[in-house]
């Protein structure tokens, strides 16, 4: 004898079947939404959340960054300098990292160019900004990649 909650001739009563189907649907939808949000960047509430490195309010998107750890924890930063300093300590556990680029989109840290300039200053005094397309520059502020930024002595302090 084959019994199934989906079989209309089964011994399960109709209300029971509806509840089981509802719970399965909620579980599947919830799981799908959870998977999507657990892999990419999250929204930052500008002016309401604090930097996980320096504890200052995160207010300026053009300097912001974030990364996700292997347990799903997301660390958020007000300045690329704070991001780099914290990232170095947790590198083995980082599963994804993003910065806000010049277009206002979260972009993986390895896909942007970083430019150091005296024309801007991040919340922690950091001179770095991220650009999807590198702006024209002279030798003093040539664009670098994430791997170069991670080696920068000025960010180590």
Strand content: 15-25%
Q: Which stretches of 5+ consecutive residues score pLDDT under 50? A: 28-37
Which geometry do the CA atoms define? globular
Largest sheet: 4 strands, antiparallel
Number of separate strands: 6
Can you count the helices? 4
Radius of gyration: 23 Å
The CA-CA distance between the termini, in Å, is: 72 Å
Helix share of residues? 25-40%
Care to describe what's here?
This protein has about 160 residues and is α+β, with helices and mostly antiparallel strands. The protein has 2 domains: about 1-35; about 60-155, no CATH class. About 30% of the residues lie in helices and about 15% in strands. A 4-stranded antiparallel beta sheet has the order 2-1-3-4, covered by helices on one side. A two-stranded antiparallel sheet has the order 5-6. The longest helix is centred in the first third of the chain and has 24 residues, at about 15-35.
Sequence-ordered SSE layout with sheet pairings:
Elements: H1 14-37, E1 65-69, E2 74-77, H2 80-90, E3 94-100, E4 106-108, E5 113-116, E6 128-131, H3 146-151, H4 153-156
Antiparallel strand pairs: 1-2, 1-3, 3-4, 5-6
């Amino acid at each position: 004898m084959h019994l199934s909650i989906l079989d209309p001739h089964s011994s399960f009563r109709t209300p029971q079947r509806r509840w089981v189907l509802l719970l399965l649907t909620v579980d599947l939808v919830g799981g799908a939404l959870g998977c999507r949000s657990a892999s990419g960047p999250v929204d930052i509430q500008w002016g309401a959340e604090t930097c996980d490195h320096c504890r200052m309010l995160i207010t300026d998107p053009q300097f912001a960054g974030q990364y996700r750890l292997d347990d799903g924890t997301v660390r958020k930063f007000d300045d690329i300098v704070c991001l780099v300093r914290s990232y170095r300590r947790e590198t083995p556990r980082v599963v994804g990292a993003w910065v806000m680029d010049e277009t206002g989109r979260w972009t993986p840290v390895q896909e942007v160019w970083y430019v150091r300039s005296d024309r801007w200053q991040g919340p922690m005094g950091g001179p770095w900004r991220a650009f999807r397309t590198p702006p024209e520059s002279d030798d003093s502020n040539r664009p670098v990649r994430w791997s170069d930024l991670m080696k920068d002595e000025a960010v180590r302090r």
